[in-house]
Amino acid sequence: MIEQLTGTLIARSPTTLVVDVHGIGFSLQVSLPASAAYPEIGATVTVPTWMLVKEDEISLFGFADRTERELFLALIGVNGVGPKTAQRILSETTPQALADRIVAGDAAALSKFKGIGKKTAEMLVVQLKGPLSKLGLARQAAPAAASANPRAAEAVLALVSLGVKEPAAQKAVDQAVREFGDNAATEVLIAGALNKV
Q1: What is the pTM assigned to this prediction?
Q2: Which CA distances in Å does 3 have to 41, 47, 96, 131?
Q3: 126 and 96 in one domain?
Q4: CB within 10 Å: which end of the chain, N or C, has fewer?
Q5: What is the pLDDT of residues 106-148, one digit of tens each?
Q6: Which of 62, 79, 107 is the last residue of a domain?
């Protein structure tokens, strides 16, 4: 198992990083936030990884940090959630927002992710509440406005992809939600939040 790679970042796309390690280019499948988390092409990076080995396929998945990797492993441990579905979920929300939904038992919000049906959403809640506490992602307080609202979660993700740190992005989007309302469009929330970071 390849736990991490350290090398030179030589290419990137929204869902892929290519890291050169002593002349070998490793292609890593990544979430949108993970792609945005690493510096410019040519920089030396250390990327936590997870390797999928099948009869006809070997794939490497890369992560923004160890927390994202552990959350990915927790997700794929739930029956009905494969690696690609887990990475799609991590691309559509932040780790904290996802954890808030699970801890709050919000299966309805979880079932809105592509590839997640009602039963799988309920399994996510049942199986991951405990593990998320160990990861330090479970908050005792009620979910913030941005984590309860899918448009707000998208706005947080957009800010993070622009380089804003997640706590600052969450706070700015929460303020934008209070200002523009729960039904505000994602674009409105992003614009409003950008004025607050």
Answers
A1: 0.68
A2: 22, 9, 23, 20
A3: yes
A4: N
A5: 888 899 888 899 999 999 998 997 777 666 665 543 344 444 5
A6: 62
Query: Two tokens at 77?
Result: 């441990």
For residue 192, pLDDT beyond 90: no
CB atoms near residue 195 (< 10 Å): 10
Residues in the chain: 197
Give the whole-angstrom CA distance, residue 193 versus residue 147: 15
CA distance 144 to 194: 18
pLDDT of residue 146: 40
Count up the domains in the chain and report the number. Answer: 3
Is residue 140 situated within a structural domain?
no
Scanning 54-149, the segments in alpha helix (DSSP H) are 66-76, 83-92, 95-103, 107-110, 118-135, 145-148
